[in-house]
Amino acid sequence: MSNMPAFGLGTFRLQGQVVIDSVRNGLEAGYRAIDTAQIYGNEAEVGEAIAASGIARKDLFLTTKIWVDNYSRNKLIPSLKDSLKKLRTDEVDLTLVHWPAPDNGVSLEEFMSALAEAKSQGLTKQIGVSNFNIELTKQAIAVVGKENIATNQIELSPYLQSRKLVAFLQQEGIHVTSYMTLAYGKVLGDPVICSIAERRQATPAQVALAWALRLGYSVIPSSTKRENLASNLLAQTLQLTDEDMADIAALERNGREVSPEGLAPQWD
């Protein structure tokens, strides 16, 4: 089984001083898992903020993602070494391939093998995938074995619950990491979410995050505001009732926010 923290700090779309402040504030608020990616263009700043925090590397869980341009066997490991340099560490805790990118000319077998090789070289403790559908996850399992796929990081929110994919991953023992859990903030104004928040004396963000945690997913929300960073963490102690969970389950509307052409799979 993978060893995945339930709660992490996302850094998507945050750059320069903004990401340095967000990571610093997050670490001060108690976050110990940080999620970045090569394409975010912020690994060096994340590394800088971590170094300045004085928190021991062993107390942190760092995730990065290989960008599709670096999938070929001769590029994947050098690109990861470059990421490690920027992050100022000898190894990350988790490395994912960012998108399946079926059209980019590198076979799944080639990039999954290269990712497994990165693990055997000690550059990353665990490996996994992101934005994979059922069929592609099966293909990845065939290459590296399901015990070597720590997680599939997928877009998941009350508006996009991907039940078929989630059921498959859980049946295979592959951990689910939810990104965009707040659907770019869209769920924060949802009347159902807001009424649960009112009843529980919580924020709508806490309700959506608590929903995902209760289903066994890891979450990696991002924020630039210190008070939201701290408030989001409290989702971990929010106990939703079965009735709350049922009300949120009914919000499913296939509300996908992210599906870049040429990179995304055929969604289940």
UniProtKB/TrEMBL annotation:
GO terms for molecular function: methylglyoxal reductase (NADPH) (acetol producing) activity. The active site is at Y40. This is 2,5-didehydrogluconate reductase DkgB. Its EC number is 1.1.1.346. It holds the Pfam family Aldo_ket_red. The keyword Acetylation does not apply. GO terms for biological process: methylglyoxal catabolic process. The keyword DNA damage does not apply. Substrate binds at H98. Keywords: NADP, Oxidoreductase. The record marks K65 as: Lowers pKa of active site Tyr. Signal peptide: none annotated. PROSITE patterns: ALDOKETO_REDUCTASE_1, ALDOKETO_REDUCTASE_2. It catalyses: hydroxyacetone + NADP(+) = methylglyoxal + NADPH + H(+). It comes from the Bacteria. Residues 8-251 form the NADP-dependent oxidoreductase domain. It is an enzyme of class 1 (oxidoreductase). Belongs to the aldo/keto reductase family.
